[in-house]
Amino acid sequence: MNLSKTRLAAIVGATLVAGSVMGGVAMAYQSHMFAARSALYTARSQLLVALHNKGGHRIAALNAVDGAIRQVNLGIQAGR
Questions:
Q1: With a threshold of 0.70, does the pTM exceed it?
Q2: What distance in Å separates the CA atoms of residue 25 and residue 36, rounded to the nearest whole number?
Q3: Alpha carbon distance 10, 33 (integer Å)
Q4: Angle, in degrees to the nearest 10, between helices 31-49 and 57-79
């Protein structure tokens, strides 16, 4: 197979561009961040239906989970 330098450069360039695009899509998806946010929403819903305040700890846990959800959302935005 005899490729000219121009054609070879075009193939290599196209491969690099395609790889960059695919890598960008993989980075933008952030499956672990979305999974973490989903788990935090599940934890929040469980805390909301828990009986009693448990000496203030249920409310403290709700506040901590809300803060964690905010941080995960900021991380997702930063990763886009």
A1: no
A2: 19
A3: 36
A4: 160
